[in-house]
């Protein structure tokens, strides 16, 4: 081994800058947000210390509780619909022998498109008069089938979820597909010799072996849906009638529109605590041993 690699200062030189950046852009903002949450402050005048009043106010804030419910709805949809869909599509692509690279690239293309572009694109597709979706519905059932996708409180959140799934599902497909293709062929051949094939092979062989990747997908989904912001902000800005309001959009409105930076910081701290708690619970429930081939 080279002398430089035996020197502990070599490793410190690489680790310390990363820790400093992590502390600057993650640890420090969390601490400052908690401190600001203890004050009543509009960002201009002097801060007034009010203790934990901002945090207790969250429990009585109907809008915050509704936004939390919308985040949970966002998360539930992604876990119940997106994850199984990702697994099934990954299985289907893994069975393809020709043009597999094309399919992998095709499903991944939406991932590299910016969220703002996706939001604007689906806003055009959802347009009542000229949107593709309503045009297709009119062709099938007439004018009565057309819908106000983003203006209807009962359809707005579902419309956003579809757009979000279209953009992000490709990333998870690539992860899951890599895990499936990494399973040694000998395992599949042994399963076929034992009479396990088709759906049973997927259920009893493939699914258990890709559980670690599925667990990573669950963690990313939970953390991502609890702090979702940009696609909601651009498509509906939390409307109509707060039907798509999520914690992050509500935090922005409180902090920068109502100029209640103390209460906005309390909302941000609540988001952090809820996200950490949910991922911790999921880790305990889904704890599994590493799979060895």
TrEMBL record:
The family assignment reads:
Belongs to the binding-protein-dependent transport system permease family.
State the organism of origin. Answer: Paenibacillus sacheonensis
User: What is this protein's name?
Assistant: ABC transporter permease subunit
Q: Name one Pfam family in it.
A: BPD_transp_1
Example of a GO biological process term: transmembrane transport
Looking at the keywords, is Metal-binding present? no
Segments traversing the membrane:
12-39, 72-93, 105-126, 155-183, 204-226, 261-282
Sorted keywords for this record are:
Cell membrane, Membrane, Transmembrane, Transmembrane helix, Transport
Cellular component aspect of the GO annotation: plasma membrane
According to Swiss-Prot or TrEMBL, what is its membrane topology? Multi-pass membrane protein
Enumerate the InterPro entries for this protein: ABC_transporter_permease, MetI-like, MetI-like_sf
**Residues in domain ABC transmembrane type-1?**
68-282
**Location(s) in or outside the cell:** Cell membrane
């Amino acid at each position: 081994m080279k002398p430089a690699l035996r020197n502990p200062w070599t490793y410190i030189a690489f680790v310390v800058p990363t820790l400093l950046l992590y502390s600057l852009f993650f640890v420090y903002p969390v601490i400052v947000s908690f401190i600001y949450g203890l004050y009543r402050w509009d960002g201009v005048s002097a801060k007034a210390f009010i203790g934990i009043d901002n945090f207790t106010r969250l429990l009585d804030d109907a809008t915050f509780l509704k936004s939390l419910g919308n985040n949970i709805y966002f998360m539930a949809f992604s876990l119940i619909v997106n994850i199984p869909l990702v697994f099934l599509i990954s299985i289907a692509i893994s069975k393809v022998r020709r043009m597999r690279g094309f399919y992998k690239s095709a499903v991944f293309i939406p991932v590299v498109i910016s969220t703002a572009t996706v939001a604007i694109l689906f806003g055009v597709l959802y347009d009542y008069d000229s949107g593709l979706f309503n045009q297709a519905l009119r062709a099938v059932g007439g004018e009565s089938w057309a819908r106000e996708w983003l203006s209807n409180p009962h359809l707005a959140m579902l419309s956003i979820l579809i757009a979000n799934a279209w953009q992000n599902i490709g990333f998870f497909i690539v992860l899951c597909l890599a895990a499936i293709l990494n399973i040694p062929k000998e395992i599949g051949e042994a399963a076929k010799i034992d009479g396990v094939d088709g759906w049973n092979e997927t259920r009893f062989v493939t699914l258990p072996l890709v559980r670690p990747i599925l667990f990573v997908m669950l963690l990313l989904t939970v953390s991502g849906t609890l702090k979702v912001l940009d696609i909601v902000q651009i498509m509906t800005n939390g409307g109509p009638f707060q039907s798509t309001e999520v914690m992050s959009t509500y935090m922005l409105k409180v902090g920068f529109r109502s100029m209640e930076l103390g209460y906005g910081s309390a909302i941000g701290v609540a988001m952090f605590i809820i996200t950490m708690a949910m991922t911790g619970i999921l880790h305990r429930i889904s704890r599994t041993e590493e799979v060895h081939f």
